[in-house]
Specification:
Elements: H1 4-16, H2 25-32, H3 36-46, E1 54-57, E2 61-64, H4 66-88, H5 97-104, H6 110-119, E3 144-146, E4 154-161, H7 166-174, E5 182-188, E6 195-199, E7 202-206, E8 214-217, E9 221-222
Antiparallel strand pairs: 1-2, 3-8, 4-5, 4-8, 4-9, 5-6, 6-7
Length: about 220
């Protein structure tokens, strides 16, 4: 049996790992809110011959073994299915579903997972635009970039929003800036990442604390 603590470790390593890059113990400890020494002890267990869920090299970091990645993707699938079900079926606001899914992702049975996916018509993304892994551990890779890197004069489509900050989600929801929304970049401040955007006939200002957490399509078009 895989404990909730192990699932959380694997899930967070997956989120921090970019391709085959190594995740440092310090970065992982910050993400988990734990002391580096405690994280190191867990990593040694996960890398042991009894578990073999990760590859761990002291002073270099950690990355997932394929079997560890499969567990991480299953947890992420549960999490995002729960988010989508809470949002679509129960009307829970998108700024509250992440916290609820954190509690339920570890206890979802295979039967409930299948029923939930069927009820949602196997939709491929959660309310924040993040891809939902398939049951066999496949996940779509979407080309996107932070809104903070988009130049003025371009029109882009919002693909995904970071779901860690409920205040940010509430703010973007109030502005109707959901995944699938097209926006025009009107102006970029010369210093920082603050932007003026146009959406639905209105001009809005987005500060530099928001723009790095909104991911948009990399296929952009110049304003005519």
């Amino acid at each position: 049996m895989i404990s909730q603590s192990v699932e959380n470790f694997l899930k967070n390593i997956y989120h921090l790992q970019d391709g085959d890059n190594w995740v440092t113990t310090t970065v992982l400890a910050d993400k988990l809110g734990q002391r580096p020494a405690s994280v190191t002890n867990m990593l040694q267990k996960l890398a042991s011959s009894e578990m073999e869920l990760i590859q761990y090299v002291p002073y270099k970091g950690v990355r997932l073994h394929p079997n560890g990645e499969m567990i991480a993707l299953e947890v992420i699938r549960h999490h995002r299915l729960v988010e989508l079900y809470l949002s679509k079926a129960l009307g829970v606001p998108w700024d509250r579903v992440h916290e609820e899914a954190e509690k339920l992702e570890h206890v979802l049975s295979d039967d409930v997972e299948d029923r939930m996916a069927a009820a949602l018509d196997d939709v491929s993304t959660d309310p924040h635009g993040s891809p939902i892994p398939t049951k066999d551990g496949q996940i779509a890779r979407v080309d996107s970039m932070p809104l903070s890197e988009i130049d003025a004069g371009q029109t882009v489509r919002i693909l995904e929003v970071n779901d860690d900050d409920s205040d940010l989600l509430r703010y973007l929801g109030d502005l109707k800036l959901y995944p699938g929304t097209d926006i025009e970049i009107v102006n970029r401040e010369p210093f920082g990442d603050s932007l003026t955007i146009r959406h639905d006939g209105r001009e809005l200002s987005l500060g530099e604390e928001a723009t790095p957490h909104v991911f948009v399509s990399t296929t952009t078009r110049k304003k005519r």
